[in-house]
Design goal:
It is found in: Membrane. By secondary structure, the protein is mainly alpha-helical. The protein has helices spanning 17-41, 46-54, 67-86.
Length: 87
Amino acid sequence: MAGELDLSPPEVPEPTFFESVLRYGLFLGAIFQLVCILAIILPTSKSYEQEETSEPAEAKSSEPSKKPKASAQQIRQKVKKESKKKR
């Protein structure tokens, strides 16, 4: 009975070209995903942080300003008046 056992490794077919491309493509995709995740987690360049700290604290307030809306409305009114004058 001991002489009848086949202890040789099983025969594994050689991977095809498509399987090789697929395997390396998956490795590259995984590396790309890790790089993207690290880019989100790790801090960005220090020049961006310096710009934030150089701004005054008043400019960083979370209250929305109504002045840009008013200026946009004034610009629209001026354009309308100019178009009426041209008629």
